[in-house]
Amino acid sequence: MQETDQDQPSIARRALSGGVLLAVGLVMLSIAWSYPVGKLTQMGPGFIPRVVAILICALALAIILIDIRAPSAEREGRMHWRGLIFVSAAVVIFGVLVDVVGLIPSMFLAVAVSMFADDHAKPLTVLIYASLATLGGWLLFLVALELPIPAFWR
Amino acid sequence: MIKKLLMALPLTVALAVPSVAQEGFPDRALRIVHGFGAGGNADTVSRIMAEQMSQGLGEPVVVESRPGAGGTVASGYVTQQDPDGYTMQLMVGGHAVAAALYNELPYDSVGGYTFISTLGQFPFFVAARAGEYESIDAMIDAALANPGSLKIGHSGVGSTQHLTGELLALRTGAEFIHVPYQGGAAASTALMGGEVDIVIDTGTVLTGQAEAGVYDILAATSAERWPDMPDVPTLSETVAPGFDVVSWTAIGMPAGVDDEIAARIRSEVHAALDNPEVRDRIAALGANPGGSTGEELQALIEGQIAVWTDVIETAGIEKR
Amino acid sequence: MIDQFLIGLGVVLQPNILMYAFIGVFIGQLIGVLPGIGAITAISLLLPVTFYLDATTSMIMLAGIYYGSQYGGSIASILLNLPGTPSSVVTCLEGYPLAQNHRAGLALFVAAFSSFVGGMVGVAILVLAAIPMTIIALRFGAPEYAMLVILGLLAASLIGTGSQIRSFAMVVLGIALGLVGADATTGYFRFVAMPELADGISLVSLAMGLFGVSEIIRNASYRSPPGPALSIKMRDVIPTRAEARSLGFPILRGSAIGSFFGALPGTGAAIASFMAYAMERRVSRTPNKFGTGHLPGLAAPESANNAAAQTGFIPTLTLGIPGDAVMALIIGALILNGIIPGPRLMVDQPDLFWGVIASFFVGNIILLMINIPLIRFWVLLLRIPYQKLYPVIIVMICVGVYSHRTSVTDVMLTLAFGVLGYLMKNYRFEPAPVLLGFVLGPLLEDNFRRTMLLYSGDFTIFLTRPISAVLVACSTLLILFAIWSSIAVRRKPDRSPT
């Protein structure tokens, strides 16, 4: 696969994904370092984590090398910031609220907020749609399945 | 709703009509929280009790599973709830073990609770493959003759089963290799496959194999012989005088529940335990059903915490 | 065996019991479609109902929920890249690309049909070979499990469409995620940043995040150009003759692998489907087509997880040993009815034993009959614009994950894995190997350490136990084959390396 007219991503950019993985491996190794390793017959809880962390570091280094040496590697995909932000917000809202105000309000807000990930969303449509979705969710989860989640705050 | 529809189908036996809701407590749904996965014994006992108590209380009782860290996540959660009488916890023997095993718990294992009642107590059994050992004495002799050769499979590090094995080693002077498995069923499989020599677990896990002649039940861990298995000797009367380990299930509430409400719940629990069907179901799970007062439950838990603290220290099990 | 099976069939075909079999598989099917809400949730909710039913009927209904959910699980995987059950993660890999190429109907048909064949093979093994399979399963001790997992990891290191080293790195990352929580051998807390993590990361969170949430993030703001109208004519749903011919062996291989892994306590449907997929990719003449909507890659794991769901009952019925949490729940229902599950079940309760097995046979037929007409409905669902669909999906994921352990932490983790999965894909890392490592890693560590404990650190035990030795030999062959083929590729530069 050949890049046609776009400029090559810089070396730093190409090493990014492997670099992050290397960081993960190193963090893991530093945490696992304090775990007891034990001996072969009575392996401690730290034995396997160390092996795994070292393996991650080694693989990450290999990935960095490959990515740097192969300038024709595909470019990373573009970011979907809008989706990322609003989907995250919806899930966080649900998680924070469900234990506090119950299932119905948190479902409503999660649907409403997540709809703004689509840049065409209009407030009135969102309101109607979120109400309908919440009604459906209530019927499914609380009426039909009787999940043990309170509908509202107690 | 699916549940109600199914209950209305022809094959289901007619249900007792729930009593009409009374004034005052309770005026909304109650819940039984437990700290284990859906499908475990704790979950099943919770559902048996919830089903029966909801009829007595006239309000639904829902079961909430909050598994994590040997049940301590649920205990931490329950003890922080409003002591309004609407939140109950199904507690098991592991509660006392956790109090002894963990360095720091986010709750007070005794002071954090309003204790309601025990539901039942059950012993553990020591089992080996059929024909392997004449008796429990022969097993301990074999272990003493070859220290560190007999392997005991147990259902997880820090489980009551594991600590019972450690206690047996302490009391008899035998040395075992304690091999952890993920749950009693896996340990039982290993016993069948010949990977371990002994398994200590509940009757539910072991009696099926014992009845089929695959296992010999060598001993019970309770002080008295178990009524369902009068031929099985106790450890106490054979190799370890004074040995007494029973596990239990019980109902507790967050500390500070109004006395009247606690009494109401206690009487509902006792009424449920008086129902022969409920007794049968709890007995089927290997327990001897029986209620208690709150004080009796508290004394039981305090006593067990002391025993396990001792075992963990003497056996050198690392605290968490 | 066949005679007893016919007696069992007589039990199931009583109208009352048949009705409960139908109810079970139908509820299972629906539960399977819902992301995060699995058979465990459904069965534990319905457990009180079984207090009022006899043992045979209870078990037939609860078992129906279990294997019915395996059928349902593939539907959301194919339509929305949303694994309804952990075992249908692999179904996403080929099923979702097919749906994106406007062939959702075909994918659903192939999935339903493969599931049916897999289920039936599983039932056949149950009827004909339950006892021999039990004996084999009991010969699997810690060394065998450890070597089996290593073989699996080696065979599967080709999963994913990226380069091999990247996908292997993801397997190891999955193993690392599997380490989080209390160590099974010592109880030591590893990487436990908060108490909720003490029991480890939930597989549901990981699967829903990496697959479901990441896909929503990617597509929420994307408006697809109006594609060709989705065809729901039966003609476009049924595979062509050539396609059908390409599916025979994959389905059989998948069923065989699934039947084997299902019968081993402690493994199960999820591992079986991964293994079947890896196997298919290994033996395929066109491994490059995997990941793009390749039908054999869909059919093999689908038949595997359904075969495993059936043979998973072997240890449950013959030994009274539950292979996983769902089986434990089903055994619980038996115990509550006063029946002690164990080796005597088959002798003491032949009506129950054979009735339940016959109900699997009937249940799979019912499921096929429900599924084929429903394809039309599911495909119609895709006509709803994604913008109207995804907010509902997010909420379903949230509720499903939350209800699983009543845990807010799990909901937040699902989001974290969603973002991770999204970023991974942007940087050419595949999510499927992460899940594989996550599922297999703990099994490997647990059994490897147990082997060392049981046999005092003696490595030769892996070679002196016969089954283990065979597994080691297979792994060695696999490595040699990989080296040989990479040399062969280098000699022929025109063939692109996979």
From TrEMBL, chain A:
Domain DUF1468: 17-150
Superkingdom of this protein's organism: Bacteria
Keywords, comma-separated and alphabetical: Membrane, Transmembrane, Transmembrane helix
Keyword Amino-acid biosynthesis applies: no
Transmembrane regions listed in the UniProt entry: 15-35, 47-68, 80-104, 124-145
A Pfam family the protein falls into: TctB
Protein name listed in UniProt: Tripartite tricarboxylate transporter TctB family protein
Source organism of the structure: Flavimaricola marinus
UniProtKB/TrEMBL annotation, chain B:
Signal peptide: 1-21
Gene3D superfamilies tied to this protein: Bordetella uptake gene, domain 1, Periplasmic binding protein-like II
Keywords, comma-separated and alphabetical: Receptor, Signal
Keyword Endoplasmic reticulum: no
InterPro entries registered for this protein in UniProt: BUG, Bug_dom1
Iron-sulfur listed as a keyword: no
Lineage: superkingdom: Bacteria
Similarity remark: Belongs to the UPF0065 (bug) family.
Record's protein name: Tripartite tricarboxylate transporter family receptor
Species: Flavimaricola marinus
Phylogenetic classification of the source organism: Bacteria, Pseudomonadati, Pseudomonadota, Alphaproteobacteria, Rhodobacterales
UniProtKB/TrEMBL annotation, chain C:
TM helices/strands, residue ranges: 20-47, 106-138, 145-162, 168-189, 256-279, 319-340, 352-377, 389-405, 467-489
UniProt entry tagged with the keyword Transferase: no
Keyword Transmembrane helix recorded: yes
Lineage top rank: taxon: Bacteria
Keywords: Membrane, Transmembrane, Transmembrane helix
Domain DUF112: 18-436
InterPro entries on file: DUF112_TM
PANTHER family in the record: TRICARBOXYLIC TRANSPORT PROTEIN
Identification of the protein by name: Tripartite tricarboxylate transporter TctA family protein
UniProt source species: Flavimaricola marinus
